[in-house]
Amino acid sequence: MLHKHLLNRLCKARVLLRQADADSLSVPEVARSVGLSTFHFIRLYKSVFGETPNQCQIRARIDKAKDWLLTTDISVTRICMDTGCSSTGSFTTQFKQQVGLSPRAFRYRYRSQRKVRPTLPDSLIPGCFSLMPGKMK
């Protein structure tokens, strides 16, 4: 069982990892900021949250990109750079793996649906919202 203090540090790390922008901390920097070695941090983080810190960062970047693709006219290249991804190619590959569509195809498909449907499809609502009372069906 994890000590309460250690769990608090892992939760702080999760907040840092979800900051999807060009100034995001690397996994080793996050580990140092919560006082853990990188290897120990990755192992503990995965055991507590069910994903690696890197997977958390990628998911946060994709979530932010999905929001921007639906609500702005910012270019995919700019979204890629502003969410902290190093190249448009790797961003597009990660986006397609997570979402099933390229960023451009996602924008085209769901923006056209937004004209008909004013809310996001259930499949695009982040799972963490299911933990909020009254937010899910």
TrEMBL record:
Q: What protein is this chain from?
A: HTH araC/xylS-type domain-containing protein
Q: Which UniProt keywords apply?
A: DNA-binding, Transcription, Transcription regulation
Q: Which GO MF term does the entry hold, naming one?
A: DNA-binding transcription factor activity
- The HTH araC/xylS-type domain covers 11-109
**Which SUPFAM superfamilies does the protein's record reference?**
Homeodomain-like
- Keyword Iron-sulfur assigned: no
What PROSITE patterns does the record tag this protein with?
A: HTH_ARAC_FAMILY_2
Organism name: Saccharospirillum salsuginis
The record's annotation in Gene3D superfamilies points to: Homeodomain-like (1.10.10.60)
Pfam families under this entry?
HTH_18
